[in-house]
Amino acid sequence: MNENNNLDQQQFDSEQAQEEWVRERLVIRLYEPLPENEEAAVNAYLEEHPELCEVQEQYEAIVQGLGNCGKPDIPLSDGEIQALKNGMILNQKQANRQHRKKIMYWLTGSAAAACLLALLWTQGVSIQIGSTRLAIGKMPEAAALDEQRLRGEITEEMATVMAPYIAQLMNESEAQGKQIQALYELVNQQRIEDRRELRNTFQELVKRARLDAPMYVYSSSPPDAWEGIKEPAQGETVSKDY
Amino acid sequence: MNDEQIVAEAQAGNTYALETLVRRYDRPMLRYFFWLSGDTERAQDLRQDLFCKLFRVLDRYDRSRASFQTWIYRLAHNLAIDQLYRRKVVPLDSLEELKDESHPSSSERNLPRNRAAGGETKTALEEAMATLSELDQSIIAMKTGDNITFEEIGQVLGIPTSTVKSRLYRSFERLRIELTARGHEL
User: Fold this and answer.
1) Exposure winner among A10, A98, A191, B95, fewest CB in 10 A?
2) ipTM score
3) pTM to 2 decimal places
4) For residue A74, which residues of chain B lie inside 8 Å, CB to CB?
């Protein structure tokens, strides 16, 4: 006991602080038991300072007084409880209605979103950002449409611009003509990316063939793949069975 | 059945469980509000409001965060602070500290206990209680009315347990001095 007291004494800066600590414990222990070491320290202090016993009695009187006063004992009547219950049932009904509304909104929103997604998926959306084409939704179809368009452009270009010259060149140089014809067919069979590359090769071959060919299809200044090729003169017959 | 089991039943819509809950906390809540308001009728009104509010927010109670007793006392404390003092309340779902001065300020002197003193005869102790801040009155009310543990009081008020203990001690000291000064023998 004395050991605890000594221990506690070492923790306090002054006698007054220790007394404050003991007084606080005197109040606390009126409601809840103290830990053993604190209880021992308090009792030891009370033995040394009997004047505090009077304070302790005053605290006890306050607790007793508090217990005696301020105790209205008016329970809720059955009617009041019933009214509260009815209020709660009403609240629950309102809450359920709101909950059902939320579910309906959620279902409607989900259905709309699903419809939008389905539409995107079946139709596909293609967005051009700079040189990049971004396909949203059903990508194969969007890409296929894109490729189809490009294929058409190139084929049309070949048919309208190049074909006459191919025929002409074939007439003039059978060997080169066959090479060009083979390449032309290959261009049509290849994928769009390869076709672009092949078209360049094709143009190069045309240019070379043109250099070897008679001058009437040759324009003056610097030979260029496209610019150098002249359209046949009006009335000039061009074979198309290439 | 303990509180949590009853609350679970009430949350599922069992009105009998709800009634049990009301009857269990009927008197403690009346006592608590009486301590804070000092007026029986006001305390009854507050009790009625509390149970109405309880039914509205019962679904929000989460047993993993606090015991039901702690939760309902916090609800009651917030209601009392809001209606009696019109002060900032402690959030129900957090343990933020309730900012309150150690000693009652001039505005706190205008306590509902003083305002409601008209009709009822006050004991010297009740009058001395009126000199305490609402936080200190709450601590005494919870400890005297329902003997809630210091730890739970700390949770209700959002302050450390050690603060609850030291505040209770200071309140007792104040009451002792007030009663002695009024010539009341303890």
Assistant:
1) A10
2) 0.77
3) 0.56
4) 30, 40, 44
